[in-house]
Amino acid sequence: MQSKTGKSWKKLLAVLLCAALTAGAFATPAAAAEKPSAAMGAVYSVGDWALKGLLKLITVLMPQPNTPCEFPESKNFFPGDSQFLPVDPAKTTWELGFAQRDMTSGVDIFDGNHYVTGGLAPFSKRNPTDVLDEPTARITVLDDKTGRGLVAFVSIDAFGITSADVANIRDAVVNTVPWKTFRSINVSALHQHSVIDTLGMNGMLAEALFLNPLANLTGLFQPFSGKNPAFMKNLSALIADAAKEAVGNLEPGQLLYSKVDVADFINDKRDPQKIDPYFHRLRFVPTNAASSETWLTNVAIHTTGAGTDGLVVTADFPAYIAKEVWEKKHANFQMINGAQLAIGINYGCDDWPDGDRYEALQVYGRALAQKLINIPAAQEQTVPAMLNFSAKEFVIPIDNPLHILFFRTRMIESTCRKTDLLGLKLEVKTEVGYMEIGDQLAVALVPGELDPGIAFGGGLSAEDSWQGWDWEFTSMQETVGSRELLVFGLTNDQIGYIILPNDIGNLIAFGNEEVNAASTKSADLLLAAFQQTLSGVKR
Q1: Distance between CA 479 and CA 504 in Å, rounded?
Q2: Cα separation, 433 vs 166, whole angstroms
Q3: What is the pLDDT of residues 466-504, one digit of tens each?
Q4: In terms of Cα–Cα distance, which of 475, 478, 521, 529 is closest to 501?
Q5: Alpha-carbon distance 268 to 345, whole Å?
Q6: Cis before residue 272, ω within 30 degrees of 0?
């Protein structure tokens, strides 16, 4: 006969699954719910209060993991330059090295212990069934020849990666290339929904909820999640090996900047419809004409051509941009996603493949590649050899009860601490970065999925916003000044969506962005840290 305790846990599990599935956590970006009438707003508020209360109750009943009350000492955090050096337009010689690795090399992703990221899987394991293309880790190492050290840009075909795993990657790189000084190592996820889970959300939820409390109590085994520890350890080793190769590939050349309008390829599903419409390209042309070029690029588009429900592993459309660029120009390609809060794919015309999403994402990627390939040489600008960089750590309180529950079950692990005895109040330590490349470009390195309005200016009035009040803020572009701003999103952490504070709706209203936002305070705290980063450097 089943015990009363067992029945109680099953009831709690059923309630949790209903809440999680209703919320639709980590699904494809969808339009935010329309602002309700005053009467419906009151109904939503009551429902939201009840849902959050229920999630908190379930969290209290879960045994606590050994969450510290203090943050551990920062491991391989790179604060950057205390002083920004002036640009000499006459100095145009950079050194750049590039390398890449298949992220599935050395592991068997079909062993039943690897999971495809996408929608939540409460009762089934999202094990991969096939591979369309190779998810890849790419690294570009850049040296401005000022003697201050190398700056590394790592991009991975992944849904997201937390600060704890970024620290492990940095540690592996530094230890593998000890003869070089790294001024900064930055790890960006391209946010595919069809690759091996590196965040932890896509194991079997029921398994985690039943067994992770026992892991918390006994410490006898690792908690269950979608993230495979062996895969992550192997990934760190692969990236470190690629870093070693990239350093060995360092060679002199010129860096050229250009951009192309791809607004017809993108669709912003959430107001205020403020976007960066450009695909930005930094093209490195080696002095040695026999060497391959490297294109370091930036665009803001959710990589969801494969959808969120498939079990075929694919790096989505960026893989086919890379293939097209290599086939047509014999150039290395690396992409970093931008401020893409709710920006998705727009196929834009009637001749895209109908009904075959895998074929469509390939056509889409190659079409985007052609936009880059066809940028006229006359539009390229030489970038002087100067890269100034600074970064700052800051703390965000997690006030989304669904995220607190995920931390409690240890499906997600990050640089986290609890601030109360019950473990219902958590904070994460994350980071924001700022770069100046040459004399024209500025880059904000953001640890999540940013609303473009926060970066480039453009909010919602009290009348149009969900909360019904005005949010006064200074955008990142205003803080930067006259330089052209690029955003490197999902970089060095994944804190979820960073939304306009006055437009954060209720969980009960099923807003995808709200469900996936760790904190309602993310935007304010990010902007404050960004401004402090800039004001803290000498010139």
Answers
A1: 24
A2: 14
A3: 888 999 999 999 999 999 999 999 999 999 999 999 998
A4: 521
A5: 9
A6: yes
